[in-house]
Design a protein that fits this description.
alpha/beta; Rossmann fold; Serine Threonine Protein Phosphatase 5, Tetratricopeptide repeat; 2 domains; 8-stranded mixed β-sheet; 15 helices; AB_hydrolase_fold
Amino acid sequence: MKLPQILAVLLCSLSFYAQKTVESFSSQKLGGDRDIYITLPPSYEKDKNQKFPLLLVLDGEYLFDPFQGALKFGNYWDDLPEVILVGISQNKQDERYADSEYDEESGLPIETGANFFDFIGTELMPYLQKTYRIAPFKIIAGHDTTAGFLNFFLYKENPLFDAYISLSPEFALDMENRIPERLNAITKPIYYYQSTADGDLNKIQKRIKELDEKVKAIKKETLNYKFDEFLGASHYSLVLHSIPNALYQFFAVYQPITVYEFNEKIVKLESGYVEYLKQKYDALEKSLNIKMPIRLNDFKAVEAAILKNKAYNEFDELSILADKYYKKTMLPDYHMALMYEKKEDYKRAQKYYLSAFQKEPIGDLDKDMMYDKSEEMKKLLK
């Protein structure tokens, strides 16, 4: 794809998300007002019952826009889901440091840091959950000082957030030991991403790598962990490298079936291609609390796997699944027709192609195709 085309795609994708709005939030914990940046998903007003994951960004005045851009681009290609993006302004002089204040001896938030911690947990989050349709999957992100601070939410017995994006964190006392202990003890699924760079601050980088070694030693299916060290990046430029990596790591299960997944996982199965498709979307709902119809392209991928492995009986099950999501379309009858055609039962194949002809077109399936296939089956019957 040439540069003008890439720019055109990016500009298009930017228009799909709602614009950033700024709310002034009155906080008793902070003793004043704090600006909150909010962007709602493009489809937020279309389906009043749909809920969306929440991504809360600290250092919102400079981290909000990079996160928004990555989400817009990923959603344009259907690689990332729509999310409710919220940023907290910490732009006043030394505000981010006051918000992250902790006791040097206990390593826990104190004074203005404790107030900011309570502001998020007891004021902002309840307000957001009451005001907006937020799914149970919640992410928090920060950079250096605020990245260290967000780990305090892991210290709670039942952490408020499910996923943590820690960009070149500056840790409080003993966090390189406390975080692994908490990640090992927490029973619910936790997603954790941290990054550094070869050009990062030495005092920060050493402790980040110590944490990485300890977390990698944890063997838990409920822990989704990723660590990046970027070569040629600085303490600041690593942010732009990290954001898409973190989001694509957390939302990997959301992505459509890729060429790699098709070749290395699906086609190599001896059977159970439709079951694989069901489990993929069940895992999406279970892990990220995102419920969505199975994509048409994913149906087509499983169709191709069935044909390649000549497992034609599975078209029956695929047709039942298609009827659940695309009942009024040609897809369910088409899968049945394809099964009977491949099994050389041309009479039944013709019946289902004719039935599909009367339904709504979908994807590359249209009335001309169904008519031509039914005529082809008629000739094979002679």
